[in-house]
Recover the amino acids of this structure.
């Protein structure tokens, strides 16, 4: 069972996101990132940083990744929960959860349950969640966990899962440490704890 172990942090953002009107370089960086959410606006304060991050995201948030949309969102959802990054979790739930075919029970399980919950009927879903939990706890997979994951999603998708989980640790650190408030219209963990 996944238990949220991080207290919610309140207060103003530690780094103010870039506000409009944006200069040409900042606007181009935001366009490259694909949005105007607060986290992107912090990244775009240094357009070079934003462009560097965009290259990574272009692969992992596209159909080029060996991980399909559903498994990608399971990795991101579970990793951001495990890191206590409510901001990033809320953005992904609001934008991608339904597209990935996740229902309320499955979203609830990502927040406060585990791979053994009855809502996870697909062995691939269970293997992905179990792998993310192992990576967050042990920073490794046992031979049995690796075999289960690779059998469920394939070796290339398993490698992409390792990198995506690590990437969303970094994104979670940034969102959490920066104290970004929830984006309008995005859920909070508490919306799925009742």
């Amino acid at each position: 069972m996944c238990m949220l172990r991080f207290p919610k942090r309140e207060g103003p953002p530690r780094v103010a996101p870039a506000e409009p009107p944006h200069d040409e370089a900042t606007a181009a960086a935001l366009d490259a990132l694909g949005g105007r959410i607060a986290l992107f606006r912090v990244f775009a304060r240094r357009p070079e940083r934003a462009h560097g991050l965009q290259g990574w995201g272009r692969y992992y948030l596209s159909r080029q990744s060996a991980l399909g949309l559903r498994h990608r969102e399971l990795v991101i959802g579970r990793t951001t929960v495990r890191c206590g990054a409510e901001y990033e979790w809320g953005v992904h739930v609001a934008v991608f959860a339904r597209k990935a075919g996740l229902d309320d029970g499955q979203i609830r399980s990502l927040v406060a349950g585990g791979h053994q919950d009855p809502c996870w009927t697909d062995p691939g879903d269970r293997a992905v969640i179990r792998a993310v939990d192992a990576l967050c706890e042990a920073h490794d997979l046992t031979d049995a966990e690796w075999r289960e994951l690779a059998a469920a999603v394939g070796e290339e998708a398993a490698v992409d899962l390792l990198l995506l989980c690590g990437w969303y640790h970094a994104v979670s650190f940034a969102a959490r440490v920066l104290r970004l408030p929830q984006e309008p219209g995005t859920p909070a963990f508490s919306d799925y704890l009742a």
Remarks:
- Residues 32 and 129 are 30 Å apart (CA to CA).
- The two ends are 15 Å apart (CA to CA).
